[in-house]
Automatic annotation (TrEMBL):
<keyword id="KW-0813">Transport</keyword>
<dbReference type="InterPro" id="IPR036180">
    <property type="entry name" value="Gelsolin-like_dom_sf"/>
</dbReference>
<dbReference type="GO" id="GO:0070971">
    <property type="term" value="C:endoplasmic reticulum exit site"/>
</dbReference>
<dbReference type="InterPro" id="IPR006896">
    <property type="entry name" value="Sec23/24_trunk_dom"/>
</dbReference>
<comment type="similarity">
    <text>Belongs to the SEC23/SEC24 family. SEC24 subfamily.</text>
</comment>
<dbReference type="Pfam" id="PF04815">
    <property type="entry name" value="Sec23_helical"/>
</dbReference>
<keyword id="KW-0653">Protein transport</keyword>
<feature type="domain" description="Gelsolin-like">
    <location>
        <begin position="981"/>
        <end position="1053"/>
    </location>
</feature>
<dbReference type="GO" id="GO:0008270">
    <property type="term" value="F:zinc ion binding"/>
</dbReference>
<feature type="domain" description="Sec23/Sec24 beta-sandwich">
    <location>
        <begin position="767"/>
        <end position="849"/>
    </location>
</feature>
<feature type="compositionally biased region" description="Low complexity">
    <location>
        <begin position="166"/>
        <end position="179"/>
    </location>
</feature>
<dbReference type="InterPro" id="IPR050550">
    <property type="entry name" value="SEC23_SEC24_subfamily"/>
</dbReference>
<dbReference type="Pfam" id="PF08033">
    <property type="entry name" value="Sec23_BS"/>
</dbReference>
<dbReference type="InterPro" id="IPR036175">
    <property type="entry name" value="Sec23/24_helical_dom_sf"/>
</dbReference>
<dbReference type="InterPro" id="IPR029006">
    <property type="entry name" value="ADF-H/Gelsolin-like_dom_sf"/>
</dbReference>
<dbReference type="InterPro" id="IPR036465">
    <property type="entry name" value="vWFA_dom_sf"/>
</dbReference>
<dbReference type="InterPro" id="IPR012990">
    <property type="entry name" value="Beta-sandwich_Sec23_24"/>
</dbReference>
Length: 1112
C-alpha cells in the first residue's frame, strides 16, 4: 500500500441512464501509444561512446556476457510479423539469410559456455593437452576463445579485473556505456587465423596455467547417472555437477552463437567480429570445465577434443583438484574461486529496473493481449477498454489456439483477480452506472453484461455477444443509432461501452429475497479468559476502541460510515451488550447454554457508533473491570461464531465478525477440539494429517456463515497450540483472514495489533458477494483457488472481499480457437457496498490467440504464473505428499523451459541454458516458492505458524506474493539523507551483507534490521543511541526517537515500508553472528538453505540438467 492510499479518493462519477449520460470524456485525438519505450541516456562525461552495430562492418558486435541478446531482426520482431516485444533490451540489425540460418527467434536469455568452431585444431591442441592434462579445459585464449581486450596483455592497458562500478550488471541487462568501451582500431576486427587457432603468445603463460587448473563450483565429483536432487532434501554433494551441465557457468554467451544463431563470415559481412572477453571479477572465472560422464557428449568431445581418459582418477575430497598453479603476477589479478558467480545469474532487481525504464509512465489498455508492466513498476493506468492490471492479470496474453500446444508448453493459463484493488490517486475509480428499473443490459444466452466487446448490428437494434456469439435485441430504452463506423453515437457517454472496469447499480432481482440490503455491520468479539486479561489485550482493545471505530469504511466522498457495530465478550459463555444510544449505561445479557445458541437481544445490539458514542465509551471502561479477576481458562469458539451469525441474521444485514481468540477451544460445547500438536509430522508424507481440519464442524459452520453473508476474521493471540488448520477454515470459506500474534504482550505487540485492526476495518471492502468469470467459447474456467465457498461449479461465494485479497483460477480449452477472434474474459462481482447499495462490478479483459509457441513465450507474465503456481501447490498439499507436489512443480518448470528450448530457440550447444526473456527468472522464483514456509515449512516451525502462512499465501495478491517469495533487502548504512525514496534493494544473499553494513529485510510478514559488528560507531550512535554494535539491545522492537537527520530518515523509511504492506510488520533487530541471524538468513533465498535446500545457482544447474534430460 502506498502512502497516498491513506487518503480518500475522489467519489466516482454517477451516471443516470434516464437523465442522460452527458459529459463522459472521449479519448484525446491521436490515440497515444500503448506504451512508451524509454532508452537509457548516454553518460554526459567519460569515454567516447561505443560504436553502434553496423558502424564497424561485418556482423554486429556481441555484447558482453550477461547482456540480453534480442532477435537479430530489430526490436523484437519475428519473421512474418509479430509486433514488438515488451521489455526488449537491445536490438541488432537483421542479418542476411544464408544457408543454415533459419527464421528469427524470440528473445532469449542464453546461459552457457563458449562454443567451439568446427575447424581442425591441429598442433595447438596437442600442446594444450600436454599443458593441461587430459581432463583440463583449454587455456583462456585457446582456439575457440576470443582475444584479449587489447591484444596481448599490456601492463599499461585496461585490466581484466572490473571495478565495483564497472562490474557486469546481474540479470543480463545492458551494462553502463563506459563498461562497453572498446577501441575501434584494426586490432579489434581480426580475422581468425588459419585453422582457427590463436598464437599462444596472446596470453601470459601465468594466466594460461591459472585458467587451465581452475575448477568451477568446487572440486569435480565422481560421475553419476542418477538425478540426486530433491526439492525436499536438496542435493547430494557426491554427485552434483560442477557447472551447468558440466560445460560452463550459466549466463556466458557463446562466441559462436548470438541467441543461438551461428555467426558466419561471407560476402558483404566482412571478417567475423570477435566479442570482447568476459570481465573478470573475484567471483567469476567465466570459462568451462569438462562435463560429468552422466551428461551427453560435450562440445569439446564432439569437435575433436579427446574425452577424459577412463583411468584418470577424478578429484575427490582430500585430493587436490589439479596441480598447484603459481599465483597470477599481473597487476590487479585475483585468484579465481571454484564456483559459479551468483551475480552473473539473472537478477530480479535488474529485471524490475529495466521494466521501470521501458514501461513506467502511462499504461493505456486499448490493445488486445497487451502484456502489462510488472507490479513493481510505477505506472498510471488509462482505462480504454480493458480493465486495469491492478484488478486482473493473466499468466499469458497470447493464448494457444489448441489444447495440444497448451500441453506441450506446460505454461498454465490462469487469472489472478483482485476485484477491489486500490487504484492510484492519479487513476479514476470505476464509475457507477445506474440503469434505473431497466437494470444492466445482458446477453440473452450467456448472461454476459454489456461491455466494449459487444458489437451492435441492424442499425443498433440488436447486439452480438462476443462471448457466445448469440444475438440479443436492444431494449427500447437503451436504443441509440450507429455512426458510419458501426459504433453507437453515444458510446463516450456510456462507460460500459468504452471502459474495462465499471459498476452497475443492481435491481431487486439481484438482492436476497428481492429486498434491497441494509448497511452492513461489524461485530467485535473479545475473548475475556485469563490469558487475554493477563497479557493486557482486553485493556488495550477497550482503551483503543474509540480510535478503531473512527476508521470504519465509508464510501468515497462520504462524511461518515454507514457501518453499524456490536460488541460481544466470551469465555465459556457468551455475553451480549445493549449499547442503544438512549441508555444511560450499557446492558449485559449472558447466554450460558452454548449448545443452543440464540440471539437474546434484537434492538440495541447493532448501533451507529457516533450516535451511541457515550454508551460505547462507558462499556469500554467497564469490561476490563468486570473480568479483571477472572480465572477462567477454558474457552469456546464455535458458539461465538454462531452468535455473531445469528445477530446478523436477526438484523437482516451482512457483515463481519472480528474475533480476538487466545486458546484451543476445549470447553464442553459445539466445536470442541483435541490437542494434536505434533510438529515432527511437518515436511513428511503425514503432514496433511495435521494441516487438514480434524473434523468438519468449522467447515460446515463456514458454509452457514457464507449463506448468511457473515465473514469472519480471526485475530489469534496464542501461547500454545490452537489448531489454526481447523478453526481457520471459517476464514477460508467466508472470505476472511487470519492474523496471528504468538506470545502476545500488550507493551510489545500492542502497536502492531492496533495498527492491524485499524487497517482491517478501514480498507475498501464489500459484503455478501458472488463472483462469476465468463469466457468466450473455446475455453472455460475449471479450478479456483483462494478464500471463498463454491456451491456449484461456476460461482465463488464470498461473505466479504477487500482490496488486498485475490483469487486465482485456471482456464482450460474445451474447443479449438481461431487466431482472428482472440479470447475474452468478463468477471462480474455482485456485492453489497459498505453503504448498503447492491452493485455489480464488471472487469473485462481481451487476449490474443496464437498458433506459434514463440508468440506464447513472448507474452507471459511471470509474477502471475508464480502466484498461480503457489496457490495451486497449497491446494494440492491438502491431498498429496509434499515431495510429490514439489517434484511436480520442478518438472512443470523444466517442461516449460525445455519446450522453449526445443521449439523456439535456434539450434545451439546443449551446454547452453537458454531461457525465454519473460521467464528468465522462473528458476529463481520456483526455487523461492519451494523454499517458502508455506510450501516447505518443517519441524523448525509450529503447526499453527505453518497453517498461518498457508492461509496468508492463499489470499495474496501479486504485489504481496512477489515480495513474500523474493524478500526485499535494502542497504541502510549508505542511505541518502536528502532523499525520501526507498533505496535500491540488493540481491537476497548473505554474500551481500558487509561487516560494516546495516540492512532492512522485509517479506510482507516479517521485518528484520541486520547490522554488522563493524558498523561505523557514528552510525550506531545516531540511530541506536549507543556507541557500538555490541551494545545495541536486540530485544527492542522499535528504534529510539533521536533528534538527528539519520535517525529520522531510517525511522521514516521503516514507516514507508510498513505502509506498503497490509500487515504491520514487527521489527526484529539482528546482530551479526547472534542466534537470531539464522532466522533472518532463512529469508535470504538465493543462498543454500540450512535444511540443505539448493541455492539459486545450484537450482539453476539442476534445472538445466532436468531440461537436458527432457530433451534427450
Amino acid at each position: 500500500m502506498n502512502s497516498q492510499y491513506m487518503q480518500q479518493p475522489p467519489p466516482p462519477q454517477q451516471f443516470n441512464a434516464q437523465a442522460g449520460f452527458g459529459g463522459y470524456p472521449a479519448p484525446p485525438q491521436g490515440m497515444p501509444p500503448a506504451q512508451q519505450q524509454f532508452r537509457p541516456q548516454q553518460p554526459q562525461n567519460g569515454p567516447a561512446p561505443m560504436p553502434q552495430p553496423g558502424q564497424m562492418g561485418g556482423f554486429p558486435q556481441r555484447p558482453p556476457p550477461g547482456s540480453m541478446v534480442t532477435n537479430p531482426g530489430g526490436v523484437g520482431t519475428m519473421s512474418g510479423g509479430g509486433g514488438t516485444i515488451p521489455g526488449s533490451m537491445g536490438t541488432m540489425p537483421r542479418p542476411q539469410m544464408g544457408p543454415g540460418m533459419g527464421p528469427q527467434q524470440p528473445q532469449s536469455q542464453v546461459l552457457g559456455g563458449p562454443q567451439l568452431h568446427p575447424q581442425s585444431q591441429g598442433q595447438h591442441l596437442q600442446q594444450q593437452q600436454q599443458l593441461n592434462g587430459p581432463h583440463m579445459p583449454p587455456p583462456l585464449n585457446g582456439p575457440h576463445m576470443p582475444p584479449p581486450l587489447n591484444g596481448p596483455h599490456q601492463q599499461g592497458g585496461p585490466q581484466l579485473q572490473s571495478s565495483p562500478k564497472m562490474q557486469q550488471q546481474p540479470g543480463g541487462a545492458p551494462m553502463p556505456q563506459a563498461q562497453l568501451e572498446q577501441a575501434s582500431g584494426p586490432g579489434h576486427q581480426m580475422p581468425p587465423p588459419p585453422g582457427g587457432g590463436m598464437p599462444p603468445s596472446n596470453i601470459p603463460p601465468q594466466l594460461q596455467t591459472q585458467m587451465a587448473g581452475m575448477t568451477i563450483n568446487g572440486p569435480r565429483m565422481p560421475p553419476t547417472s542418477q538425478n540426486n536432487y530433491s526439492p525436499t532434501t536438496g542435493y547430494s554433494h557426491s554427485s552434483f555437477p560442477p557447472a551447468v551441465n558440466g560445460t560452463s557457468p550459466p549466463d556466458l554467451i557463446s562466441p559462436g552463437y548470438i541467441n543461438g544463431t551461428p555467426q558466419v563470415s561471407g560476402p558483404g559481412r566482412g571478417p567475423q567480429q570477435r566479442p570482447p572477453p568476459p570481465q573478470m571479477d573475484a567471483y567469476n572465472s567465466g570459462y568451462s570445465v569438462p562435463p560429468v560422464n552422466s551428461y551427453p557428449p560435450s562440445p569439446q568431445q564432439q569437435m575433436g577434443y579427446p574425452p577424459p581418459q577412463p583411468g584418470y582418477p577424478p578429484s575427490q575430497p582430500g585430493y587436490p583438484p589439479a596441480p598447484v598453479q603459481p599465483a597470477p603476477t599481473y597487476p590487479g589479478a585475483q585468484q579465481a574461486p571454484r564456483r559459479l558467480d551468483p551475480d552473473q545469474m539473472p537478477s530480479p532487481l535488474q529485471v524490475m529496473q529495466e521494466d521501470q525504464k521501458t514501461k513506467g509512465g502511462m499504461f493505456y489498455t486499448n490493445q488486445r493481449g497487451q502484456v502489462p508492466p510488472l507490479v513493481t513498476t510505477q505506472f498510471v493506468v488509462q482505462d480504454q477498454g480493458n480493465c486495469s492490471p491492478r484488478y486482473m492479470r493473466s499468466t499469458m496474453y497470447n493464448v494457444p489456439v489448441n489444447v495440444d500446444m497448451m500441453k506441450q508448453t506446460a505454461v498454465p493459463f490462469g487469472l489472478v483477480i483482485s476485484p477491489l484493488a486500490r487504484p492510484l490517486e492519479e487513476e479514476s475509480l470505476p464509475p457507477i452506472v445506474d440503469m434505473g428499473e431497466l437494470g444492466p443490459v445482458r446477453c440473452i444466452r450467456c448472461k454476459a453484461y454489456m461491455c466494449p466487446f459487444m458489437q451492435f448490428i441492424d442499425g443498433g437494434r440488436r447486439f452480438q455477444c462476443l462471448f457466445c456469439k448469440a444475438t440479443t435485441d436492444v431494449p427500447d430504452a437503451y436504443f441509440q443509432h450507429l455512426d458510419h463506423t458501426g459504433h453507437r453515437i453515444d458510446r463516450y457517454e456510456r462507460p460500459e461501452l468504452v471502459l474495462g472496469t465499471y459498476e452497475f447499480v443492481a435491481t431487486r432481482e439481484y438482492c436476497r429475497n428481492e429486498q434491497f440490503p441494509k448497511p452492513p455491520a461489524m461485530i467485535f468479539m473479545i475473548d475475556v479468559s485469563y490469558n487475554n486479561v493477563k497479557s493486557g489485550l482486553v485493556h488495550l482493545l477497550c482503551a483503543q476502541m474509540k480510535d478503531i471505530l473512527r476508521n470504519l469504511p465509508r464510501e468515497p466522498g462520504a462524511d461518515k460510515s454507514c457501518v453499524r457495530v456490536g460488541f460481544v465478550t466470551y469465555n465459556n459463555s457468551v455475553h451480549f451488550y445493549n449499547v442503544k444510544a438512549c441508555l444511560a449505561q450499557p446492558q449485559m445479557m449472558v447466554v450460558g447454554d452454548t449448545n443452543e445458541m440464540f440471539m437474546p437481544l434484537l434492538d440495541g445490539f447493532l448501533v451507529d457508533p457516533q450516535e451511541s458514542e457515550a454508551v460505547i465509551d462507558s462499556l469500554m471502561q467497564q469490561i476490563p473491570q468486570m473480568f479483571a479477576e477472572t480465572r477462567e481458562t477454558d474457552t469456546i469458539l464455535a458458539p461465538v461464531i454462531q452468535a455473531g451469525m445469528e445477530a446478523l441474521k436477526a438484523a437482516e444485514c451482512s457483515g463481519k465478525l472480528l474475533i480476538f481468540h487466545t486458546s484451543l477451544p476445549t470447553a464442553e460445547a459445539p466445536g470442541k477440539l483435541k490437542n494434536r500438536d505434533d510438529r515432527k509430522l511437518l515436511a513428511t508424507e503425514k503432514e496433511k494429517t495435521v494441516l487438514n481440519p480434524q473434523n468438519n464442524f468449522y467447515n460446515n459452520l463456514g458454509q452457514e456463515c457464507v449463506s448468511a453473508g457473515c465473514s469472519v476474521d480471526l485475530f489469534i493471540l496464542n501461547n500454545s497450540f490452537v489448531d489454526l488448520a481447523t478453526i481457520g477454515q471459517i476464514c477460508r470459506l467466508t472470505g476472511g483472514e487470519v492474523f496471528k500474534y504468538t506470545y502476545f504482550q500488550a507493551n510489545i505487540d500492542g502497536e502492531r495489533l492496533i495498527a492491524d485492526i485499524k487497517y482491517n476495518v478501514g480498507r475498501p471492502i464489500v459484503f455478501d458477494a458472488i463472483m462469476r468469470v465468463r469466457t468466450s467459447t473455446g475455453v472455460r474456467p475449471t479450478d479456483f483457488f483462494g478464500h471463498f465457498f463454491m456451491s456449484n461449479t461456476t460461482d465463488m461465494e464470498l461473505a466479504s472481499i477487500d482490496c488486498d485479497k485475490a483469487v486465482a483460477l485456471e482456464i482450460k480449452h474445451d474447443d479449438k480457437l481461431t487466431e482472428e477472434e482472440g479470447v475474452f474474459v468478463q468477471v462480474a462481482l455482485l456485492h453489497t457496498s459498505c453503504s448498503g447499495q447492491r452493485r455489480i462490478r464488471i472487469l473485462n479483459l481481451s487476449l490474443k490467440t496464437c498458433s506459434q509457441m514463440a508468440d506464447l513465450y513472448r507474452a507471459c507474465e511471470l509474477d502471475t504464473i508464480v502466484n498461480f503456481f503457489a496457490k495451486q501447490a497449497l491446494y494440492r498439499l491438502r491431498e498429496n505428499p509434499p515431495k510429490q507436489v514439489k517434484d511436480s512443480l520442478v518438472n512443470r518448470c523444466a517442461m516449460m523451459l525445455a519446450c522453449y528450448r526445443k521449439n523456439c530457440a535456434s539450434p545451439s550447444s546443449a551446454g547452453q541454458l537458454i531461457l525465454p526473456e519473460c521467464m528468465k527468472l522462473l528458476p529463481l522464483y520456483i526455487s523461492c516458492v519451494l523454499k517458502s514456509d508455506a510450501i516447505s515449512g518443517g519441524s523448525d516451525m509450529t503447526i499453527d505458524d505453518r497453517a498461518f502462512v498457508m492461509y496468508a499465501v492463499n489470499v495474496m495478491d501479486i504485489p504481496n506474493s512477489v515480495v513474500y517469495f523474493y524478500p526485499r533487502l535494502i542497504p541502510l548504512h549508505d542511505i541518502d539523507l536528502d532523499s525520501s525514496d526507498i533505496p535500491l534493494p540488493i540481491r537476497c544473499s548473505a554474500e551481500k551483507l558487509r561487516d560494516d553494513g546495516a540492512y532492512l529485510l522485509d517479506n510482507g510478514i516479517h521485518m528484520f534490521l541486520w547490522f554488522g559488528m563493524g558498523l561505523a560507531p557514528e552510525w550506531v550512535q545516531a540511530v541506536f543511541g549507543v556507541p557500538t554494535s555490541a551494545q545495541i539491545n536486540t530485544d527492542d522492537t522499535k528504534l529510539p526517537d533521536l533528534d538527528n537527520p539519520l535517525s529520522q530518515r531510517i525511522r521514516e523509511l521503516i514507516a514507508i515500508v510498513r505502509l506498503e504492506r497490509h500487515r504491520f510488520m514487527r521489527l526484529t533487530l539482528v546482530r551479526q553472528r547472534d542466534k537470531m541471524e539464522m532466522l533472518m538468513k532463512h529469508f535470504l533465498v538465493e543462498d543454500r538453505g540450512m535444511d540443505g535446500t539448493a541455492s539459486y545457482v545450484d537450482f539453476l544447474c539442476h534445472m538445466h540438467k532436468e531440461i537436458r534430460s527432457i530433451l534427450s
